[in-house]
Amino acid sequence: MGKIFNRTTYRAVFALGLTVLLIHLLFTFHASRRSDLSTAPSPANGAVPITPGNAAKVASAPLGTTGANPTVTTTGKRANAVLLILARNREAFGLRSSLKQLERRFNHKYHYPYVILNDEPFDSNFKRIVDQTVSGNVSYGLIPKEHWSYPPWIDLNKAAEGREKLKNVIYGTSESYRHMCRFNSGFFFHHPLLAQYDYYWRVEPDVDFTCNINYDPFVYMQERDLQYGFTITLHEFRSTVATLWETTKDFMAQHPEYVSHPNTLEWVVEKATGDYNMCHFWSNFEIANLNLLRSERYRAYFDHLDQAGGFFYERWGDAPVHSLAAAMFLRKDEIHFFEDIGYRHSVYENCPTGLTFNLQNCNCDPKRSINPQGLACTRDFLKMDPQSDFNITTMEQNVPLL
Ligand SMILES: Nc1nc2c(ncn2[C@@H]2O[C@H](COP(=O)(O)OP(=O)(O)OP(=O)(O)O)[C@@H](O)[C@H]2O)c(=O)[nH]1
Ligand SMILES: [Mg+2]
């Protein structure tokens, strides 16, 4: 009996050992495949590892029960949010660069899903590159033709003349750029792939995330009832929005009930003249509440602008459109400056100016940050409310770095 028992025990121990070895090999293989995300924490205490294949399932499970992610489970919270991208097939590697950084700086701890949209179908190469870069589930979507084409009321000759007039301005002669701006102004939030989400974070190819993000900006927004978050503000080229303010004022006159009181209009209106001062949130980065854009008033505003035709006759950008909407519909304290998110798009960047934070988390030079400078409108934004959650004195104190 004792002998048989021992043999059984040996077999059981051997089988157990083999299973442990196989599991170990499986994880080693998985980790080496994803070595580009080497800073990602390994699942702790028997946690469910998140892979592109099961991320959606894990993400939709009640938080705190999956044990999937120490950061998520300790706070017990994650927002109903998505990382949103509009891109072309040829931008796959530029997007990979952005996403590698976003994953390393932030999403390896949270595994937020991605929605990636295009006016043409994504090819298998693009999908392969993205799938191998991210830790969250990815959905690829095609934009419906009616959201990326001329509406019937647009005079195509007048649109062609409009492009000719702007030939000296960046993207002034581009038709696709105009479709992109119109889509980002009025349609992306209608895409069925976004229907289930409340917040989005817009990401573009070829941008840089230059600091660790040590908390969840979506949850930060949700807990404070914030509606719109930005990292960079700029002045728009006047000729691209020549009649945007007039058209916006018409809208406010027709629909005074849609304008909030208090609002943030003083940030965009020149005191002396009452004109638009060209200030806008640079929308290539934005973290915002989709329900703001889905609201009746935002949709009415977009329809009003779209009827006027300025997306095609001029070159209205989604940045000034979102910004004027935020100015009309939001209080200043519903808009947040993510000063601590290091972000670079082309020549402009936000680099945290607090030296201690910067040294510990970033690889950007605060002297290059656009926000303390006159080209941006960030100081004016912050000065509207000296009691705001961002401490302007921090910025003032740190300016000597410049
Ligand atoms: N699918 C698709 N995406 C586009 C098209 N044009 C622009 N985009 C995307 O829309 C976003 C904004 O376009 P950008 O070309 O970056 O425009 P921008 O940020 O104003 O200008 P730069 O980045 O300085 O060139 C990016 O995510 C692009 O990938 C297009 O024709 N089709
Ligand atoms: Mg861009």
UniProtKB/TrEMBL annotation:
Entry-linked Pfam families: Glyco_transf_15
The keyword tRNA processing is assigned to this record: no
SUPFAM superfamilies: Nucleotide-diphospho-sugar transferases (SSF53448)
Domain of life of the native organism: Eukaryota
UniProt xrefs under InterPro entries: Glyco_trans_15, Nucleotide-diphossugar_trans
GO molecular function: alpha-1,2-mannosyltransferase activity
GO CC field: Golgi apparatus; membrane
Keywords for this protein: Transferase
Record-annotated membrane-spanning stretches: none
Example GO BP: protein N-linked glycosylation
Entries under PANTHER family matching the protein: ALPHA-1,2 MANNOSYLTRANSFERASE KTR1
Family the entry assigns: Belongs to the glycosyltransferase 15 family.
Name of the protein this chain belongs to: Uncharacterized protein
Organism, as annotated: Tieghemiomyces parasiticus
